[in-house]
Amino acid sequence: MEHRLDWSSYETAGQGDAYAGIPATGGDFAKAVAVCINDRACQTKPKGVMCPSFRATDDPAHSPGGRVKVLKEALNGELGERPFAHPAVLEALELCVGCKGCKRECANQVDMAAIKIEVLAQRNAITGVPRRDRLFGTLPRLLAERPWLGRLVRWRNRSPWLAKLGERWLGVAAARQLPEPAARAYAAPATRVEESSPLYPAADERAVILFVDTFARHFEPEVAEAAHAVLTAAGYRVEVLAPAADDAEGGRPLCCGRTLLSLGQVEAARTEARRMQAALRPALARGLPVVGLEPSCILSLRDDHLKLDLGPEAETLAKQVYLFEEFIAREHDRKRMTLALKPLPAGTTLVHGHCHQKAVGAMKSLRKVLRLIPEFQFEFVEASCCGMAGNFGLEAEHAELSRRMAELDLLPALRAAPEAPILANGFSCRHQIREGVAREPVHVAVLLRQALA
């Protein structure tokens, strides 16, 4: 088996009695699958994230343990010579939303999200990339190169017949609204390199690199603008990450490759990752912090990129990249930052955490940051995945299950407090909430900008 991801970190897995039944083929990937010890914790419903698809279906086959069973059969040769194109394997992983809850909450940290990427990459090598996956995977490039795409999306959202045509041709749910690109994409404020660039040696002490992801850039530029304003108000010299001078793609904005990676388009994702590395090389050499806004993008840089065989620079970046709230909390704890904030209108704000925020333990940082706002009252909603999970909730065959996931805990909690403001840092989470309860959630960067004194 030729691995599409680097599974060498599992090389010594299975040497003790805790691991059982390592498949006959698959090498280190097989060991990553076999870390499951079949304790069935993923087939229960305690507090936490794991496992959204099991919580919604009550079917053990749609839990990490159920998926491991099928994957072991595939790697043991029980599903033929092309197991990764076998319907049983694809069906087992179909409802995995890549939440990474199992990596945090499973006793042996089964990384089913990464396993799914490998399986999809293997399938793509056999059967080709499906048309819909190609569309969703290349969305960052399409948004940058085809500015008319926003008009097409708005037309589709207002035209039932066009939405039905999209469902028939591409499998995009006609009953779902697509996120609409903003009228203008985010544009970084002009800066004078000799005075304010963090790549300039004298600026290192109070410098920060802001990575503006595809979703903030093209759909909600106000999130990136708010983050820039808050970091500047806190006394940092903010440099918005841009392509390297010798970047072969010219002016196309940088992307972490998350949309490609989640759909098994590994080589294309690796190309995007290398573009980011080239752009960040001077900053990484100086130890400058890299701050991002979208949990799934930042976790890709911190976790998934380590499986792309990118060399030591990927490990360096993983140690220097922070979610916006993580950076604010860290700097406040180190007494390096004084952010003048004022009280906001009275009332309790409901906070929904993105699955990847929960997977990396970033909810503690978010709690610390919200406590910086004077007299601010908030309550964390106890819920698993919102169900949108990137493109998952937009797919015709998954739209109903996506809503079911949201209706387990999240949407009922929001309806129980109809006047409460809502905070959600995940782009997909905000989209699901807008459709589910017709309210407008905000990112923590936007909230902090509102609270600037």
Number of helical stretches of at least 4 residues: 24
Spatial strand sequence of the major β-sheet: 2-1-3-4
Helix content percent band: 40-55%
List how many beta strands DSSP finds: 7
| CATH architecture grouping of the largest domain | Orthogonal Bundle
Q: Mean pLDDT score, rounded?
A: 93
What number of domains? 4
Give an overview of the whole structure.
By secondary structure, the protein is mostly helical. The chain has four domains: 8-127, Fumarate Reductase Iron-sulfur Protein, Chain B, domain 2; 131-170, no CATH class; 193-243 and 275-333, Rossmann fold (3-Layer(aba) Sandwich); 348-451, Rossmann fold. It is built from 24 helices and seven strands. The chain has helices at 27-34, 52-57, 64-75, 87-94, 101-105, 112-127, 131-137, 139-145, 149-157, 160-170, 193-196, 214-218, 221-233, 258-261, 266-286, 295-302, 312-320, 324-333, 355-359, 363-370, 399-408, 410-415, 427-437, 444-451, and strands at residues 207-211, 237-240, 290-292, 321-323, 348-352, 377-380, 422-424. A four-stranded parallel sheet has the order 2-1-3-4. A three-stranded parallel sheet has the order 6-5-7. The longest helix has 21 residues, at 266-286. The termini are far apart. Mean pLDDT is 93; it is low at 192-202.
Short description:
With 453 residues, the chain is mainly alpha-helical. It has helices at 27-34, 52-57, 64-75, 87-94, 101-105, 112-127, 131-137, 139-145, 149-157, 160-170, 193-196, 214-218, 221-233, 258-261, 266-286, 295-302, 312-320, 324-333, 355-359, 363-370, 399-408, 410-415, 427-437, 444-451, and strands spanning 207-211, 237-240, 290-292, 321-323, 348-352, 377-380, 422-424.
